[in-house]
Amino acid sequence: MKIHHIAIICSNYEVSKKFYTEVLGLNIIREVYREERQSHKLDLAIGEHYVIELFSFPNPPERPSRPEACGLRHLAFAVENVEEKRNELIHKGLVCEEIRIDEFTDRKFFFTQDPDKLPLEFYEI
């Protein structure tokens, strides 16, 4: 029917929480700490749409390589204006790749990364 959410495990909960809420502007739906698992769980939304479950666990392994590691390659966000979003993120201190054009759709996009080096794409719709 549709994708319900994407789960991300972070290495530093407070850093990633700040990144996803203050830098990217996602809204907090619910935040819990599960003592038995020593794990934070943060449910995040874009507007009213639940999209990301952010987890922390003790000592998670690092991502093997970027971006061709087996598993999730990148997370893509739809934006109305790629130039504006790129400038906003650069102003907030992120390193952003140059804007490229999708050879199949002629749409603009660029990549940056989250605090754990998960590649994030911003794609103009």
Automatic annotation (TrEMBL):
All residue ranges annotated as the VOC domain in the record: 2-125
UniProt KW Kinase keyword: no
Top-rank taxon: Bacteria
Alphabetical keyword list: Metal-binding
Pfam family membership, one: Glyoxalase
SUPFAM superfamilies: Glyoxalase/Bleomycin resistance protein/Dihydroxybiphenyl dioxygenase (SSF54593)
GO MF term list: metal ion binding
Protein name according to UniProt: VOC family protein
Source species: Chryseobacterium taklimakanense
Lineage: Bacteria, Pseudomonadati, Bacteroidota, Flavobacteriia, Flavobacteriales
